Amino acid sequence: MSTSQLKFFAFTATALCIAGGLITILASQRVIHEDFIWAGIGVYCIGKGFFVGPMLLSQAKN
Fold this sequence. Notes:
By secondary structure, this protein is mostly helical.
């Protein structure tokens, strides 16, 4: 893969993971008894977004 492709995928993965986490957290407001589970999944997705993007960017630099 070229460097520009890896950079594109890095930013796309970061954006999708963060968006998925935010959607999960916002959707969890309707769940009455298991809010903490859905909020945890949302926070995990956001954290994964901040991890996956920089890892792909570091591969683009190599």
